[in-house]
Amino acid sequence: MSGGTAVAFAIGLPLFGTILILLNDRYPNIREGITITTSICLALVVFGLVPEVTSGGRPGFVLAEIVPGLPIAFKVEPLGMLFAMVASGLWVVTSIYAIGYMRSHHEVQQTRFYACFAIAISSAMGICFAGNMLTLFIFYEVLTISTYPLVTHSESKDAVKAGRTYLGILIGTSIAFLLLAIIWTWFLTGTLDFTPGGILKGKADGPILGILLFLYMYGIGKAALMPMHRWLPAAMVAPTPVSALLHAVAVVKAGVFTVLKVIVYIFGIDTLAGIGQDDWLMYIAAFTVIAASCVALTKDNLKARLAYSTVSQLSYIILGAALANSLGIIGGGMHIAMHAFGKITLFFCAGAILVASHKTEISEMDGLGRVMPFTFIFFLIGSLSVIGLPPLGGSWSKWYLMLSAAEAGQIIFMFVFMLSSLLNIAYLMPLVARGFFAEAKDNAKILKETHSEKVNFWNGIRIGNIREAPPFCIFAMAITSTGCILLFFYADKIYRLLAPVAGIQG
Amino acid sequence: MTEHLPALQVVIPLLCAPICMLVRYRDWSWVVALFGSWASLAIAWVLLQQVIATGTISYHMGNWAPPLGIEYRIDLVNAFVLLIVSAIAAVVTPYARESLRTEFGSNRIYMFYTAYMLCLCGLLGVTITGDAFNLFVFLEISSLSSYVLIAMGNDRRALTAAYQYLVLGTIGATFIVIGIGLLYAETGTLNMVDLAKRLADQPLSRTIGAAFGFLVVGISLKLALFPLHLWLPNAYTYAPSVVSAFLAATATKVAVYVLLRFLFTVFDVELSFGFMPLDTILFVLAVIAMFAASAVAIFQTNLKRMLAYSSVAQIGYMILGISFANVNGLAAGVLHLFNHALIKGGMFLALGCIFYRLATVNINDMAGMGRRMPWTMAAFVVGGLGLIGVPLTVGFISKWYLVLGALERDWWLAAALVLISSLLAVVYVWRVVEVAYLKPIPENATKIEDAPPAMLIPTWLLIGASIYYGINTELTVGVAKQAAQQLLGVS
């Protein structure tokens, strides 16, 4: 399969899967089988592209010309390759997890869930492989709209409210700021192609570039830069697999990925560093890193705490991009992958706890680790990766980000990263500690609560006093936490993949 | 034969009207109307191709040479508008048969088709003619027949709505005829090309200024420019669904075309925007329309009325594009004529489908409609995305050029306003989405099927076109850009 065809397949396969999923509305087993098969095929197609891209190939194709001179075009480059690998790989795992979760939680409208999920993945692929800013924008909007039914999945009042925040912020920022920035760029330069070195160089003077940077950064609402972060905590009403999609697989990653793309290929890191208009961005990102971590500390609801943690972690990547040097770009790009694996593990665990013990608040989880040991061990691994301790993947991206701050001569941001790591420990570790070491206020009650239902293959595991989530969930969590560990040892592969983007000769 | 196509464009619907009256039997009169609208579409298509291939067509009615005789003059601008009007008619007519079954007494249905054909004839006539007075005559034909069409709504308030429209429409028409009269007094000609030539040779006089003022105000009333839009919401709300769809997609568009014709062809840009500060006036009114009308739309419970206010806002976008007076802005205006016709026509047809089953289009009755009439609601939502301007819909293309036009003019604020105002559309569209998809079906609801194919297919034709032309813009953008260049006299 030639590169261009593979790209078309990567975008088309999930859409084809969507149709099959809709057609098999009445046969859940076939429907889920299709989801898994499609996701595996997609992952194979995406990973098949890697050798070509690593060896310097940039496969792509042109779909249609929307505006004269401005086509819907696709071109694979390393950053997009990395994001596509993360998204397609994690779709497989999330699909496996979703089977366990959705069935044991007796969710409604599962066909709609799987269908919208597949459309969201297709648009994520479109974002990964977009060859110009317009194409990226189109798929960015499709992603927002296709995830709306997922966020409002339960159709409750809270879900509708969350849906409003979600759509309001994401559509609002993207139309009012991002689209304006895109058209303005087109007006200034006559092109929107992602070009190494950027397209804005010499096309406008400093202040205008500063305004454009502002419009881009706040237009990309998915990157959740404060104060545009509200949608992310709001969206936690969605089922856990959706949270995984939002926080790890596609949505927020699409946001920070777009930030990186804009800074690398629209502005160009040299241009950005040269004009000195991005100081405000560094400080806002650093503020978001710290502030969101502090808010996370105050949250007792596990998913809310994780949501604020994501807000904080996303700004690592924005900060890396704003530092505008090679190491920052590499660190930022790497953090997309590292954080994805860490955070998806944590969300899977939160979902597993909900399914098996119906608990959402951290203060209720005393002693739960002894009832759900697997889940809590996976949670520990995910936490350590997010905190950034070796031998887990998260340590490398933090390493490069800190190096980048040092290279830029911004020592203050090194402290920001360190302080944030400490805060990470403070808001993630208590759960593990409570789970394993705290004495449950009423141990018998936990056992009674968690052991009251009949357990079968679809809704859980029970061995002695252990009451775990369904096997599908456990399996998925095992994969992602293994991924966290493996990434530590394979980080150099990511480094080499990203080196050309950052202008380092591999 | 082909050289008489311009005449046939108007004559066929004109002849179909009395035939509808004569055959009386409702299905037969429907067939006649179907023939009339489809033939119009075919002719409009051929004319557009001819204009693209060979340039402006000038047809002398009855072989009387202009400027004394009536000239039908077709350039890219009106060829495009002819296509819009006749295409909408061709899609709406098949829909009408089923829709009118529930909305209109069956023994008088031939009267509906008679008025409908007259209205189509009037709109096409306004568009095709190159003679100012002839334009007024056709404008009156279309207006009078649309008063009748609106009054045919089965709600009694349709009568007051039609009456309100009659009063305001007549004032508008009077203004237009006064303007044309003043121009005739000053120049001694009624042919538009001739008028333009003679006006250019003459020094600006108070008479010409007054004529300009009368014309602009009169036309603005017909096109429902804020604050002269007061007739529109009631008229669209209480008219039969078919009529709302047809008029929303065509009548105001034709009026916008007339404005373009007078501002750029008869008077020239220098006069319209240099001597008269019309760009500022239009800009301010358009922006107010975009925001105020959208904001009012958010609070409507009757969905037809909501769409009507949305129309006022969307007309604001067209006028905004015109006020930029540059190629991109004008192209955006012309483009939005077409794009908005598709979107709004499709959405009104979708509401017609809902009315057909529920006999109401109140938002409170929409709970669970996403599941009760999935295809209809899906059409409505896709149309709504177009109103918002989501990429891959035609609305996005319009916004793109509108913003480009603003940037070209260095009106940064205008560019931002265009985009911010579309967020109001998000609110009023999503209000419906939430009710239709996220509220449970009421327990006492009767089981209903989706609308019949005879209504769904036309609806989806327009909605599908609003996607198709959002992706393949070769025809629309190409024609709109060239039309804008023609109007501005640049190439």
Walk me through the topology:
The complex is a heterodimer of chains A (506) and B (491).
Chain A: H1 3-23, H2 28-54, E1 60-67, E2 70-75, H3 78-104, H4 110-129, H5 133-151, H6 157-189, H7 206-219, H8 231-234, H9 240-249, H10 251-267, H11 269-275, H12 279-298, H13 302-322, H14 326-357, H15 368-371, H16 373-387, H17 394-407, H18 411-436, H19 443-450, E3 461-463, E4 466-468, H20 471-489, H21 491-502
Antiparallel strand pairs in A: 1-2, 3-4
Helix pairs in contact in A: 1-2, 1-4, 2-3, 2-4, 3-4, 3-9, 3-14, 3-20, 4-5, 5-6, 5-10, 6-7, 9-14, 10-11, 10-13, 10-14, 12-13, 12-18, 13-14, 13-17, 13-18, 14-16, 14-17, 14-20, 14-21, 16-18, 16-20, 17-18
Chain B: H1 5-23, H2 26-54, E1 57-60, E2 71-74, H3 76-103, H4 109-128, H5 132-151, H6 157-187, H7 192-201, H8 206-223, H9 231-238, H10 241-266, H11 269-275, H12 278-298, H13 303-324, H14 327-358, H15 369-372, H16 374-388, H17 394-408, H18 412-438, H19 453-471, H20 474-488
Antiparallel strand pairs in B: 1-2
Helix pairs in contact in B: 1-2, 1-4, 2-3, 2-4, 3-4, 3-10, 3-14, 3-19, 4-5, 4-10, 5-6, 5-10, 6-8, 6-9, 8-10, 9-10, 9-13, 10-13, 10-14, 12-13, 12-18, 13-14, 14-16, 14-17, 14-19, 14-20, 16-18, 16-19, 17-18, 17-19
What can you tell me about this protein's structure?
Chain A has one domain (3-502). Chain A is built from 21 helices and 4 strands. Chain A has helices spanning 3-23, 28-54, 78-104, 110-129, 133-151, 157-189, 206-219, 231-234, 240-249, 251-267, 269-275, 279-298, 302-322, 326-357, 368-371, 373-387, 394-407, 411-436, 443-450, 471-489, 491-502; strands at residues 60-67, 70-75, 461-463, 466-468. In chain A, helix 9 runs antiparallel to helix 14, helix 14 packs antiparallel against helix 16 (373-387) and helix 14 runs antiparallel to helix 17. The radius of gyration of chain A is 22 Å and the shape is globular. Chain B is an all-alpha fold. Chain B has a domain at 277-491. Classes of the chains: A mainly alpha (506), B mainly alpha (491). The interface between A and B is medium-sized, with 31 and 33 residues.
